Amino acid sequence: MPLQFASRLDNVETSAIRELFKLLGKPGIISFAGGFPDSAMFDIDGLKQAADEALTHESGGALQYGATEGYEPLRTQLADFMQAKGVAGVESNHLIVTTGSQQALDLLGKTMISPGDKVIVEGPTFLATIQCFRLYGAELISAPIDADGVQVNQLEQLIVQHKPKFVYLIPTFGNPSGALLSLERRRQILELAVKYQTLVVEDDPYGDLYFGAPPPPSILALTKEMPAAREWIAHCGSMSKVLSPGLRVGWLIAQPELLAKATMCKQFSDAHTSTFAQATAARYLKSGRMPETLKIVRKAYGARAHAMGEALKKHLGGAIEFTQPQGGLFFWARLTGAGGGIQDAAEFAKRAIEQGVAFVPGTPFYAANPDPSTLRLSFATANVEKIEEGVGRLGRAL
Amino acid sequence: MPLQFASRLDNVETSAIRELFKLLGKPGIISFAGGFPDSAMFDIDGLKQAADEALTHESGGALQYGATEGYEPLRTQLADFMQAKGVAGVESNHLIVTTGSQQALDLLGKTMISPGDKVIVEGPTFLATIQCFRLYGAELISAPIDADGVQVNQLEQLIVQHKPKFVYLIPTFGNPSGALLSLERRRQILELAVKYQTLVVEDDPYGDLYFGAPPPPSILALTKEMPAAREWIAHCGSMSKVLSPGLRVGWLIAQPELLAKATMCKQFSDAHTSTFAQATAARYLKSGRMPETLKIVRKAYGARAHAMGEALKKHLGGAIEFTQPQGGLFFWARLTGAGGGIQDAAEFAKRAIEQGVAFVPGTPFYAANPDPSTLRLSFATANVEKIEEGVGRLGRAL
């Protein structure tokens, strides 16, 4: 008799991506597949100093069990970090530290979703969000997006129709879309949250990665224009894309009751996030090196995004369409089929692997009604030279 | 309209402990309440060196996203560590790294428990296990224990009656019981697992903390005597009690299919455990300092356990009964009511706080049928002097 696993596992399907990632081991492959930041950009000296200081000056705190809510010096630094990004009045006890922002999603699922509950997400949205919420039994509803982010009129209709437990958005340089929700739409989202008393989760791992002008304020920051909306907005932040994913330091800001329930769930998920990593992150933020680190990261990714856009135009021309991203880590593109070219991104991905370049086809990013001609290209991991070479290979794979 | 939380939260009750822990902030209190290791025993120099080496020699790995299964150098070290503890043939791919062993419990819950499923636990058992499994909808069945651990005849009857999804045991210096499952019973457990094709989860955070002779081999190690049982045993390990809880490094050993499903669940729980903490732990284990660290820790806790036992006899005499623990961090005791003394541990806890000493009453450790005269005393956090002073206060509180 084999083991009987929990029925919630029946809701999850991960094989498509797993199969693709197996192929990435092929020697010489250029990968546009992952959303990994470039290791060459990590501020190793700064982190080494931060870790050493933490173990020297607060070894008790850094190595002992800690509060489930998070290590207080880090919570204070993160509150300051969010205030500096325009979120008025945020204090350390308005946030909890999570084991990466993936855990913030998991805790929202655990805290909020009963089996059969509906959750509205963008179509397309972050793959691991889809699976995470489905493991808690969510029925996902897909709201369409364009280059300005989620289409608010359609979102409103879906809220009315489905009465979701919450709405999940990646408003700033979305994954996989790269889209930037306009300021006008952000304000409309706040109105919807209040009008329908609906929780809106703003996942914001990429907001600091802008290449030109800064993006509009986060939806959370905009609640200062509409204080009644504050209790309906939850916000997930992360150090992963700007400092180091290996630390696994994210955070969740939400109204007190939700935060208390999420903390209780976290207690039984992992007790607390590594205090060793938290104390190191706190020392790093306190050191004042973050603004310079962000400048370096923005500049490098900006150059890569530019190079990828130019190379796509040069090597794929009319066969592909996309909006040049203004920040983040991703191009979201659509195969046009122009000139009788290939229009199925999964098939294109196979041919691309044969040419030595990898990307993720768009279908798995949709909770419903996938557009099979879409694909995601990450410019995070490869440098400009590799990007040009890799896009050249894409051209040959067409 | 307030937020509607997930129905799974209705299964959890944490207020009793929370209220108690609030009182711990009182100045001058001596705490026998928590299971925190003593910060004074952390090998700070060893960990500082390990962290520095990890950031110097493998900064890419230590700061980048990592495999959900765990950082390979750590998995290799942990496999060696388990082999040295008598688990034959364990290789790095037989285990996954978890964010503390609390996450191993959470992943077992997520992977195995459908709402309404039954799980057998010891009565009493680890508090956070009870809540963790209930959040996944488990109905917990309580199997009685004595000083030799779970009573196997009764366990067998409960397995037959309830057909549980799995059995959860802390066989070695259990929390809160301090009990040590005898070698004979360990072998009987293996027989039950095979006979009833029932998964047995062995949670083993305390096995290395023995004061005299080493305990019998772990249930997992004993599978070498009965290879057919290997697939029915899952084993949770942890660095928290022997090296540092702040690292949040635990591990789960299980048969391949269960491990694969747990890995999938972990992917959507926190993506992976901090590679920064994992690389540091791997370097530490590789440094060869662990055996000396274990010697120091065993000696210190042994002295504390001895002091607590003597003080209890001296100050509480016949009013309390207990078995002297041979390892771990806890005394499990029962108020006898001798001489008309207090017999309700919750009431005794209140009086003790007034005298400046804290412990946890036993009731919350039972999934069912609590014995209200029981209590747990930890000798982990306070040194010998404080233990004698604290137990004196307990005597005055009687």
UniProtKB/TrEMBL annotation, chains A, B:
Superkingdom, natural source: Bacteria
GO biological process, one term: alpha-amino acid metabolic process
Gene3D superfamilies tied to this protein: Aspartate Aminotransferase, domain 1, Type I PLP-dependent aspartate aminotransferase-like (Major domain)
Keywords tagged on the record: Aminotransferase, Pyridoxal phosphate, Transferase
Gene Ontology molecular function terms on file: pyridoxal phosphate binding; transaminase activity
Domain (Aminotransferase class I/classII large): residue spans on this chain: 47-394
Subunit structure, as described in the record: Homodimer.
Protein's UniProt name: PLP-dependent aminotransferase family protein
UniProt source species: Caenimonas sedimenti
